C-alpha cells in the first residue's frame, strides 16, 4: 500500500513558513518521499501500518492550510503515468556508471 499526502499550506508570514518547514521535515523524517512539490508518498506494508501512518500525519498537521491523505494499493500506484516535458537530469542512466570490482 502507499500513503500519499497532498498539502497546500500558507507561507505569507514567518510563522507560517516555519510551520510549513516543520511539517515538510516531519514528512521526510517519517520516511515520505517527495513525488513533486507538496506531494509526498510512503510505502506501507498493510492497512494497519497505513492507518498508523495516517494517524501520525494527523497528529503533526499544521494548524492552518489544507492537508489531504490518500491510501492506495501497490497495483493502483503502479498505474501512475509519468508525463513530463523536457527534463534535464545530471544522473547518468547508462553503463557509464557501472563500477566493476
TrEMBL record:
<keyword id="KW-0255">Endonuclease</keyword>
<dbReference type="InterPro" id="IPR021127">
    <property type="entry name" value="CRISPR_associated_Cas2"/>
</dbReference>
<keyword id="KW-0479">Metal-binding</keyword>
<comment type="subunit">
    <text>Homodimer, forms a heterotetramer with a Cas1 homodimer.</text>
</comment>
<dbReference type="GO" id="GO:0043571">
    <property type="term" value="P:maintenance of CRISPR repeat elements"/>
</dbReference>
<comment type="similarity">
    <text>Belongs to the CRISPR-associated endoribonuclease Cas2 protein family.</text>
</comment>
<feature type="binding site">
    <location>
        <position position="8"/>
    </location>
    <ligand>
        <name>Mg(2+)</name>
    </ligand>
</feature>
<dbReference type="InterPro" id="IPR019199">
    <property type="entry name" value="Virulence_VapD/CRISPR_Cas2"/>
</dbReference>
<dbReference type="GO" id="GO:0051607">
    <property type="term" value="P:defense response to virus"/>
</dbReference>
<dbReference type="GO" id="GO:0004521">
    <property type="term" value="F:RNA endonuclease activity"/>
</dbReference>
<keyword id="KW-0540">Nuclease</keyword>
<comment type="function">
    <text>CRISPR (clustered regularly interspaced short palindromic repeat), is an adaptive immune system that provides protection against mobile genetic elements (viruses, transposable elements and conjugative plasmids). CRISPR clusters contain sequences complementary to antecedent mobile elements and target invading nucleic acids. CRISPR clusters are transcribed and processed into CRISPR RNA (crRNA). Functions as a ssRNA-specific endoribonuclease. Involved in the integration of spacer DNA into the CRISPR cassette.</text>
</comment>
<keyword id="KW-0378">Hydrolase</keyword>
<dbReference type="GO" id="GO:0016787">
    <property type="term" value="F:hydrolase activity"/>
</dbReference>
<keyword id="KW-0051">Antiviral defense</keyword>
<protein>
    <recommendedName>
        <fullName>CRISPR-associated endoribonuclease Cas2</fullName>
        <ecNumber>3.1.-.-</ecNumber>
    </recommendedName>
</protein>
<dbReference type="Pfam" id="PF09827">
    <property type="entry name" value="CRISPR_Cas2"/>
</dbReference>
<keyword id="KW-0460">Magnesium</keyword>
<dbReference type="GO" id="GO:0046872">
    <property type="term" value="F:metal ion binding"/>
</dbReference>
Amino acid at each position: 500500500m502507499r500513503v500519499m499526502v497532498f498539502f497546500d499550506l500558507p507561507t505569507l508570514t514567518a510563522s507560517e513558513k516555519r510551520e510549513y518547514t516543520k511539517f515538510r521535515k516531519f514528512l521526510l523524517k517519517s520516511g515520505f518521499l517527495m513525488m513533486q512539490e507538496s506531494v509526498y508518498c510512503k510505502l506501507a506494508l498493510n492497512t494497519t501500518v497505513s492507518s498508523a501512518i495516517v494517524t501520525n500525519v494527523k497528529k503533526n498537521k499544521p494548524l492552518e492550510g489544507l492537508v489531504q491523505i490518500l491510501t492506495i494499493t501497490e497495483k493502483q500506484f503502479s498505474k501512475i503515468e509519468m508525463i513530463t516535458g523536457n527534463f534535464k537530469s545530471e544522473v547518468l542512466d547508462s553503463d557509464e556508471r557501472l563500477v566493476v570490482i
